[in-house]
């Protein structure tokens, strides 16, 4: 791609020498490399201090004992592996529940977003970007406020169940709020754009001529979709899975606003230990376990697609 | 493009042109579904706007939103500033988002530029950290930052303390925004033809002039998009802020705290205002970037 202009016929007449500036190419390359490090340094250092160091410190904290507000106000590093033991044995079920909720929500997100993204990408025509904007527009409203609105919508006599009940379509004592259903519905709603965006990007990129070719070779519409479109959209599906599942597992806003006592997710536990109980060691261990699990998934994914592709999808998803 | 929609059997001489009557019905399924999805996604926003006009039984300062909707009043819009704590949180949100987005854009733009066009040692590592920044769940990042601030305050390296509050919120928001700005700019730089800059230098432009006259105008939309993204992410962030804010509330954390006792209708009013501002800004961006559909 980079050579097109220089190599284009007509731009440089045959026999004409290149300007002498090209002679200094090697010096230029060296200067550029120095410039690269100079430009990289501030952002790189900040990322290091803002990501790598905190992640190291949380691992360190997870192996300390004592507490800042108890026992003399000091966290002491004691290779306290029992924090992990305690975290897993006492709070294991909350990880399992979080993963279940997140997995169901992820499947729902992709199942709902795929047909929509497909139709917009293939049949949206000139309205394509407008239609896609309309999907993203609701997400200009703060995450917390949107979730609170679902509280009103799903409430016992709220906007959704109220009319259904007066029409006799659902029993009087039927309720959604404070059940797993409400939490999963909230997560599905809130993470929908994270699924829709990479799916749309992947589907939009597919060369229409491939589909036409398949049809020319007597493939039916369904076969062309199954053999051409679906396989080519797999990177988008991968990206959608990771971008929905990982944040959904750690989510605690939906569970705490829409859920009840039986729907506690691991995020709520971590939050509680850090911000309410101030037991930093065990809180850190809980957090590190979640991080490790999610990183394994993210790395498998990065391995399959390359970090650049995956961050590209992530970039598109925001 | 319309050939995709039309059955292509016409290319084959003797193939009978079969038109199933059901085909006409099925072709409406996807568009109807898509419109249904758009309505579903927008529904809470409708509810939010609608409830900003909810006529509530009690009046006064401690008025709380309820699930029953009674039409209609503009009293909450007139009393938009009636909740001092909410105003304070809103001001703090802006006071955090603006410097955080500016610094993140500055740092992230350079990162994106370097990653997009130079091959250098450490490129893979930098890309990996950026990937990490996006792949790590927010709650892990938030709790890690809190753990770091707590440790800094306990150990006081070189006498530095970072008491939880405004400063720690800004520092944390910069950290998570940089990666997003870097990706946005990188995508833009990767589409850039390097030979353009070479051509400028062949025409005796100094590297600096070539950068500002050729490269910078091309990546500028990416930088603007990165800034807006960072601003919105900061404004909307709840999870990380909730960990590092101490007792200083931003708009989302204040609303979250108010949920238990019921939110005042002013939250709906402000939510609507921010929504309209966001939509207008995005609309302008879309109109400006109309030509470049893909990034």
Describe the protein in words.
With 318 residues, chain A is mainly α. Chain A has 14 helices and 2 strands; from the N terminus they run ααββαααααααααααα. Mean pLDDT of chain A is 83; it is low at 1-15 and 312-318. Chain B has helices at residues 2-5, 21-26, 29-51, 75-78, 84-117, 123-135, 138-155, 166-190, 194-202, 207-236, 239-244, 251-259, 266-288. Chain B is 69% helix and 0% strand. Chain B has a domain at 84-263: MetI-like fold, CATH 1.10.3720. The chains are: A mainly alpha (318), B mainly alpha (295). Chains A and B meet through helix 1, helix 2, helix 3, helix 4 and helix 5 of A and helix 1, helix 3, helix 5, helix 6 and helix 7 of B.
Tally of individual helices of chain B? 13
Tally of discrete structural domains of chain A: 2
Q: What quaternary form is this?
A: heterodimer
> Roughly what is the average pLDDT of chain A, rounded to an integer?
83
CATH class categorisation of the domain at 84-263 in chain B: Mainly Alpha
Global Rg of chain A: 26 Å
**Low-confidence runs of chain B (pLDDT<50, min 5 residues)?**
1-13
* CATH C-level label of the largest domain in chain A: Mainly Alpha
Describe the sheet with the most strands of chain A: 2 strands, antiparallel
Beta-strand share of residues of chain B: under 5%
Compute the number of strand runs of chain B: 0
- Largest interface: which pair? A-B, 115 and 111 residues
CATH superfamily heading of the domain at 84-263 in chain B: MetI-like
The assigned CATH architecture of the largest domain in chain A is Orthogonal Bundle
Structural class of the secondary structure composition of chain B?
Answer: mainly alpha
CATH topology of the domain at 84-263 in chain B: MetI-like fold
